[in-house]
Structure to design on (518 residues):
């Protein structure tokens, strides 16, 4: 018997990294899952690797667009009849820079990717969940949702902002059987970190990519990076029926990095 | 079965939150020692839990170093080791506004909540650190983050547990041992029923008024349940919990501000 038997989940991102870890954990616990990504080929490959058969589906779309945030909710309901668990997970940076060098283009991209997409997806999901009086919204924030490192001002700003959004929404729907929480992972060496990490390291004034990873590891009590499985385990717990009394919370999975 | 083969000690585990945690751990495959002051309540808990030789009762009071030492050593004697320590026993009597507060009430609250956490943690670490694996879960409270009038002895003790947890996490972070707090909102457990009326009086409220106040502060507009705390304890105790340490996890229906 799984902890999520009979539940239906949608995960923005989800073909790799943290979202993928959540998708695999949800499948194991008995849920049906829709994952999302830009590249249909990668999506097909991810579905095959995860081996969920009829219990997993792919929705193609760029998570920075409202059409994707709305679309994955609608697609999930059409495909599996309802949406119980919405993981607003996709996010990142492309060409981050210190504030004085930040372009409008990058700033706007980060706001769309990390904040607007979370708002759009949350709004669409809540409109489905509120009449049904049940639901779980899980936002992937970051330790940067409480801290701030040089060179990633847009990331820090948007990851803070989603916590404000999460807290307000949690109070709005608190009596309606719907919980809204955020998970704050420490750094994890995911595909996206490997891709954008070297550029981010430069913007952050760290000489090498390895130096960037080492800086995050040293800030943690465990002196290592986190893993997607650690985040996925927290997501399963927050998504479960037993977590109905946990809402409005910033759930750190950061090996003892954050001071509060 | 996330806790197969693990051994846990839950202080104050015959009723309320500790009991729910003990039951959740047993369901996940652990062997569990529950503790309480009353032999009769312990025997009753064992009967009700009906888990055969995977649950064991140790009578004892956590308000002394010797009592805590006996619990940890008794757990190791019974099951060979201690993997998971839940510092759950706690409470307070003698509530009063600070201006009228008596020394004995603060001393007793600190012994019951803070010193017991320190003592049990110290003895448990001596078994966990050499084996490079352990999970320590301290039951703090939403009052470990906030304050309420009339109950400063409890608020002080729970805040102190949070500070203790943060420092300890940094000491042992690389040794496979995690230490976290769970901060539950108000739950109407037996101990709340026992002590709530006196606390309410110190706060200038009726008992029902106290419960209503806690519920009204939460986004869910109700009190929490022991099962909600137990599911988080299970997560923190699991293998995947190895990446979570030094953190104050709220199980409060959206009450705490941070």
């Amino acid at each position: 018997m799984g902890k999520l038997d009979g539940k239906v989940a949608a995960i923005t991102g989800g073909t790799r990294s943290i979202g993928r870890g959540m998708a695999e954990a949800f499948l194991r616990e008995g849920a049906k899952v829709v994952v999302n990504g830009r590249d249909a080929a990668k999506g097909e490959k991810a579905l095959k690797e995860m081996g969920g058969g009829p219990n997993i589906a792919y929705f193609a779309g760029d998570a920075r667009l409202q059409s994707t945030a709305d679309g994955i909710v609608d697609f999930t309901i059409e495909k599996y009849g309802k949406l119980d668990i919405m993981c607003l997970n996709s996010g990142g940076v492309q060409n981050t820079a210190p504030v004085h060098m930040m372009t409008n283009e990058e700033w706007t991209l980060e706001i769309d990717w990390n904040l607007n997409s979370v708002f759009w997806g949350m709004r669409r999901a809540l409109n489905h969940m509120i009449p049904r009086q049940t639901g779980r919204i899980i936002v992937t924030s970051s330790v940067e949702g409480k801290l701030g490192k040089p060179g990633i001002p847009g990331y820090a700003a948007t990851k803070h902002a989603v916590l404000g959004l999460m807290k307000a929404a949690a109070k709005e729907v608190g009596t309606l059987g719907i919980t809204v929480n955020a998970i704050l992972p420490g750094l994890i060496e995911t595909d996206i970190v490997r891709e954008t990490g070297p550029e981010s390291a430069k913007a952050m004034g760290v000489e090498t990519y390895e130096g960037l990873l080492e800086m995050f590891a040293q800030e943690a009590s465990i002196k290592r990076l986190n893993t997607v499985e650690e985040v996925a385990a927290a997501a399963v717990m927050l998504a479960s029926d037993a977590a109905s009394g946990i809402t409005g919370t910033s759930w750190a999975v950061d090996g003892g990095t954050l001071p509060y | 079965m996330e806790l197969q083969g693990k051994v846990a000690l839950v202080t104050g585990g015959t009723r309320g939150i500790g009991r729910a945690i003990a039951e959740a751990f047993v369901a996940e495959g652990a062997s569990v020692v529950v503790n309480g002051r009353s032999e009769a309540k312990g025997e009753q808990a064992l009967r009700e839990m009906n888990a055969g030789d995977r649950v064991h009762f140790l009578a004892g009071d956590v308000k002394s170093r010797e009592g805590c030492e006996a619990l940890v050593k008794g757990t190791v004697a019974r099951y060979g080791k201690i993997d998971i320590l839940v510092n759950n026993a706690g409470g307070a009597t003698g509530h009063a506004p600070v201006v009228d507060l008596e020394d004995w009430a603060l001393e007793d609250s600190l012994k019951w909540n803070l010193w017991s956490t320190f003592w049990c943690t110290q003895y448990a670490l001596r078994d966990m650190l050499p084996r490079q694996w352990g999970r320590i879960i301290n039951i703090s409270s939403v009052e470990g983050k906030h304050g309420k009038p009339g109950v400063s002895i409890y608020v002080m003790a729970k805040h102190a547990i949070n500070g203790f947890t943060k420092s300890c996490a940094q000491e042992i972070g690389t040794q496979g041992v995690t230490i976290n707090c769970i901060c539950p909102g108000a739950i109407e457990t037996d101990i709340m029923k026992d002590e709530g009326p006196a606390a309410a009086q110190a706060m200038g409220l009726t008992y029902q008024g106290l419960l209503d106040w806690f519920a009204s502060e939460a986004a869910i507009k109700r009190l929490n349940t022991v099962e909600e705390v137990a599911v988080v304890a299970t997560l923190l105790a699991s293998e995947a919990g190895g990446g979570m340490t030094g953190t104050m996890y709220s199980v409060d229906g959206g009450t705490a501000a941070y």
